[in-house]
Amino acid sequence: MKKVDILGVEFDFTTQQEILNILQDKIERNKKAFVVTANPEIVMYANKDPQYMHTLQFANHIIADGVGVILGSKIVRQPLPERIAGFDLMIELLSIANQKGLRVFFLGASEQTLEKMIPKIKRDYPKLVIAGYHHGFFKGHEHKVKQMVKEAKADLVFVALGYPKQEEWIQKNIDSFEKGIFMGIGGSFDILAGTVKRAPGFWRNLNLEWLYRLIQQPTRWKRMLALPTFVKKMFQYRRKSSDNM
Ligand code: UDP
After folding, report:
1. Which residue of 44, 45, 190 sits with most ligand 1 atoms within 8 Å of its CB, as the best mutation to test the pocket?
2. How confident is the model over 118-152, as pLDDT tens digits?
3. PANTHER family given for it (predicted)?
């Protein structure tokens, strides 16, 4: 698949439908995949932390989650086809899992979030098989959790530990598992559980989901400072590559 390099992170040149087809095909063939949904914050973090950048290099698919990444791809004149929100990708995969009776494991978020989310999953996706679930605060029990995931033999494993933990967990453990699509999904379980609200369509259509999240969780403002730096770096990157031509 064609990739687009955004400050050293290699994004898939894909639409949501294309990546869904690819992942479905991998599930049917019992193949493994490590999927990252990355926004500018993640790209900036990888640029500061070589270990995390190294982890991302093991991913099979890095998906452009965030208008900032699309903007970045335009700045380097290799526009990516569309933004694919990690949350939307998860919802689509849950529907496919429901249609096909796939096995799904949910790893991450708090116990309270899971208590609210699991009944909703059972109600909304009755034919999906819940292969297992575990909250995301398991320091000291890493081995037990790995064994649980291993024995669950899930087709889809959603890992909601936030970055960089979720990607590090996937990279560290994926070799122990026989099959499965492993996808880092950030705070999506909280949205599914209803404890955090997703931006309504109006905000999303205006590409203002980030602003809506900021208003809901004002403590995130510091993290968002990564965005202007990201845009600045993209322009520097473009200047450097055109100087080299
Ligand atoms: N979380 C977890 N274990 C941890 C730290 C965080 O399970 O050790 C969960 C947390 O409860 C939340 C999610 O990971 O559900 C992080 O959400 P956030 O929106 O901060 O992640 P991002 O989208 O920025 O990666």
Report:
1. 190
2. 999 999 999 999 999 999 999 999 999 999 999 99
3. PTHR34136, UDP-N-ACETYL-D-MANNOSAMINURONIC ACID TRANSFERASE
Query: End-to-end distance of the chain based on CA atoms, in angstroms?
Result: 25
Q: What is the residue whose two structure tokens read 């796939």?
A: 102
pLDDT at residue 229 above 90? no
Q: Burial-class residue 34 by CB neighbours within 10 Å (0-12, 13-18, 19+).
A: buried
Number of domains making up the chain: 1
Distant-in-sequence, close-in-space partners of 152: CB < 8 Å, separation ≥ 6: 103, 105, 131, 132
Q: Which residues contact 78 (CB under 8 A, 6 or more apart)?
A: 4, 13
| 108 in contact with ligand 1, CB cutoff 6 A | yes
CA distances from 216 to 54, 110, 191 (A): 32, 19, 12
Domain hosting residue 97, numbered range: 3-243
Residue pointed to by tokens 């932390």:
49
Strand, helix or coil for residue 83: coil
> Could you tell me the distance, in angstroms and rounded to a whole number, from the CA of residue 76 to the centre of ligand 1?
31
Query: Could you report the per-residue pLDDT of 68-123, keeping only the tens digit for each?
Result: 999 999 999 999 999 999 999 999 999 999 999 999 999 999 999 999 999 999 99
> Which token pair is 236?
């520097």
Q: Please, which residues have CB within 8 angstroms of residue 12's CB and are 6 or more apart in sequence?
A: 1, 2, 3, 19, 61, 62, 63, 64
CA 166 to CA 160: how far, in whole Å? 6
**SS3 assignment, position 181:** strand
- Fill in the amino acid letter for 17: Q
Tokens of 163: 């970055």
Separation CA 107–CA 109 (nearest Å): 7
